[in-house]
């Protein structure tokens, strides 16, 4: 009986010790921040995107691009508890320009001082939302000057270009015709801002001693063969402010993103 009592006491001590260890191992993330790198990688189907390379569409039209840029804003992360963290709005708009890609074809967006947490999804807007536009030219901060320098603005009354694509296309009837997709919202009369939400294949761990990376792939082919397949010959070689054609491209653009992988470093 004495042995039984001793064994029971040891068991209780082991349980208490285990609980205590579990409590000690709970990570306190309060007040902690870290860096997150989002790598945007443009491709065409399963091919790397390369300027002035001919790519085929589903209707056998082909295209070559010399300019490829789009706006990304309102980057937001959702953690394992469903809590959302939005990067500060004054810094939360970026031009993803293929001309600025590294040798691997990646464009880096670095977010600093992100709240530490375990994140399971990322969302962002393609373009500029009406709330930001409503702040007026004076409310755009330094980004207005940046957008103008990058050719991502019309006049202020018309607003930002969300997507800028320049190049040529060929079909059964024409060869090397001009291709220009300069679309966005048109002031407040047409709203082509779209939001994208992507689940992460593994949890992103934001910590003060880590710099995790999310590798986002943009399939440029889906701009033309996405939710809606379009024909350059039928009016989609020049997309600017028309409500129908810009809306189709905006919807296609929202569907071209996916997360390839995540690195926790």
TrEMBL record:
Signal sequence region: 1-21
Every copy of the Copper-binding protein MbnP-like domain together lies at 33-230
Q: Which residues form a coiled coil?
A: none
Q: Which domain of life is it from?
A: Bacteria
- Keyword annotations of the record: Signal
InterPro entries per the UniProt record, alphabetical: MbnP-like_dom (IPR046863)
Name of the protein: Copper-binding protein MbnP-like domain-containing protein
